[in-house]
Amino acid sequence: MQTRVAIIGIIVQNTDIAEQINELLHIYGSYIIGRMGVPYPKRGLHIISVAVDAPQDVISALSGKLGRLPGVCAKTAYAPCEEQA
pTM (2 decimals)? Predict the structure, then answer.
C-alpha cells in the first residue's frame, strides 16, 4: 500500500487530555517518524507536531481521532505526492 509523508499539527488547550493523546500516538507509533512538543504557558497551550509516513487513510484516522478529543485541535499537511515514473 502506498504511503504519504505528512505533519499533524496538534494544539492542546486541555492538559488533562494528555494521556489520551499519548495513547493514540502510541497506537499509531509504527507510522510516526518523529514528534516535538512545545509548551506555550503564556497562552495556556501545548503545541505538538508529529511527522508520519503512513497510508492516507491511517493519517486521516489519527488526525480525526485527535481532533475529536475535547480541547484539542488537529490539522494535517501532506508532502506533495511523488510522481509515478
Answer: 0.90
